[in-house]
Amino acid sequence: MKTFEEKWTAWLDGELSGSELAAFEASLPDRVAAEAEKQAAQKLRLLLKRELSISKLANEEFFSHQLRERIGHEGNSNTGRESRSSGWWTVPRLLWSGAFAMAVFLVCTVWVMQDNDFADQSPLTTKVLNAKLDPTAGTDATVTVFEDTEDNVTVLWTEGLKSLPSEYAAK
Amino acid sequence: MNTEATAAQPDVPELDLVKRCQKGDSEAFDELVTRYRTRVFGMIYNMVHNEQDAWDLAQDSFLKAWKSIGRFRGQSSFYTWMYRIVMNVTIDWVRKKQIKGSGAEFDDTIQLREIDPASKTVPKPDFAPSEKMEHQEVRAQIDKAISQLSPEHRAVILMKEIEDMQYNEIAEALGCSIGTVMSRLFYARKKLQNLLKDVYENI
Amino acid sequence: MFRRLVLLTTCFALVISAGSTNAGLLYDLLHPLRSHRKSASRHASSEHPGEIVWSGLVMADNAEKPAAIPQELAPIETTLKELFGYNQFEIIGQSRTALHKGDENWDAASKHFKLFVDAQGPAEGGYAVNLKLVQHDDAQAPPDQVVLETDTKLSKRSPLVIKGPQVGGGQLLLVLVVR
């Protein structure tokens, strides 16, 4: 919503039109005084334009010559090219690149150090270090150990143990 | 860098010149300087009321534009972009001068009388002596009135009344909103009307 | 100056990330066991609270209409059926023990059997355990008989199945699984 100042300025500059113009002019308490002020503003504009537009640059070619010398002296053609060639690498982009690199670093660190993956991928199987059977349980009892790769099961296979009656299956 | 004057290229579109500048073509920048040096100088002179200072500030503005031409994206006209640099340079200079000095405005009328014929001068229209005096007095009054405005208010009044820039162009050059531009214009016009009533009523 | 500093920091970060990735991968390629031991020990010492050892006394036999395999044995169903030739497996005694320090003791018992498990700490991706199968018979003296004793390194990824004595028409199996 425009303030009164904005509407007044637009009205002075002839930027208001249509309903906005009608509404503004209707809102003016003293239309005559406002029109007088508008006239005064236009006179001021003419005065300023007449007096201040006279300022012209004398020795224009010398101005350009001096500027060329300054640019050449400061090596701005090279500086300009350098800043343009590295222009893609603005400070925000450098910061984002650094942040991205740090994020990659952290992800790699976590991934490398992660234990679960290694444990899960470990081919380690259960190892039977030793086994002994009670001689009374079977005189010719033997023990064999092997690994079943199907389900990655280590089996301690006994042979020759005494058979037991079916009551021993009770829970 | 070639310091010789280069042939004018008035028919080359501005955007083409800017693109060439961005590739390091100093002759293209020379053409842009040729096109805008008078307006830039005039604008700055009306802000600072000192020829030498206006000359130096105009040079600084163009130099800064050359250094940052790579950042021009073409979203506005080159002159609006250039104006932003000019305003930044000039307003900063005016503020610093006000901080350093007593706050009293520079009396341009004295300098006009003591101009060295061999130095850079502002050519005056061919007034009759009496007209000349009257013109100088009017100019002095106007300068005095404008100097009572803040740098920002000076800028908007000069860009609007002298350069005939649109509100959005002024806003872009000053880095503020259109509402702020219109509000500053309101105030600056009111103040100048108050200060120069005797002058413009006698036109 | 500031821009150069930022650029240097960016390059340093990139080099570090690339270096650590390559170092980690190379290390694992050259030292798989060492890395596994390390990861296992780290795993064991750090994950006791989450690990459960399931110990079961299982009676395997053949039935005309076999019951569904118990859930605890489902992961090794194929091995059990193919190795032992039975189609039905019944859990007659079991124990679920959560490991905290890795040195807990527990047992799984049925009427006539007891499987004693004595965990002796973490070892190479699992736990060192001493197992004793004790047979209990009131009529016999001494009443308890250690049928089988074994020391194993029980792996997290590798269940242990021990073939016990023949019982009636079936077979006693001892199963230990780290979950």
In short:
The complex is a heterotrimer of chains A (171), B (203) and C (179). Chain A is α+β, with helices and mostly antiparallel strands and 171 residues long. Chain A has seven helices and three strands; from the N terminus they run H-H-H-H-H-H-H-E-E-E.
What does this structure look like?
The complex is a heterotrimer of chains A (171), B (203) and C (179). Chain A is built from 7 helices and 3 strands; from the N terminus they run αααααααβββ. Chain A has a two-stranded antiparallel ribbon. The relative contact order of chain A is 0.04. The radius of gyration of chain A is 48 Å and the shape is elongated. Chain A has helices at 4-12, 18-27, 31-52, 60-73, 76-85, 91-113, 115-121, and strands at residues 127-133, 142-148, 153-159. Chain B has a domain at 9-105: Rna Polymerase Sigma Factor, Chain: A. In chain B, 34% of the residues are buried. Chain B is mainly alpha-helical and 203 residues long. Chain C is α+β, with helices and mostly antiparallel strands. Chain C folds into 2 domains: 2-46; 49-178, no CATH class. Chain C is built from 3 helices and 8 strands, in the order H-H-E-H-E-E-E-E-E-E-E. Chain C has helices at residues 2-30, 32-47, 77-84, and strands at 51-61, 88-99, 105-109, 113-123, 126-136, 144-155, 160-167, 170-178. Chain C has a 4-stranded antiparallel sheet with strand order 2-1-8-7, with no helix packed on it. In chain C, strands 3-4-5-6 form a 4-stranded antiparallel sheet. Residues 33-48 of chain C have low confidence and may be disordered. The chains are: A alpha+beta (171), B mainly alpha (203), C alpha+beta (179).
Q: In one word, what is the shape of chain B? A: globular
Rg of chain A (C-alpha, Å): 48 Å
Largest sheet of chain A: 2 strands, antiparallel
* Name of the CATH architecture of the domain at 9-105 in chain B: Orthogonal Bundle
Radius of gyration of chain B: 18 Å
**Mean pLDDT rating of chain A:** 80
- Our estimate of the beta-strand percent of chain A is 5-15%
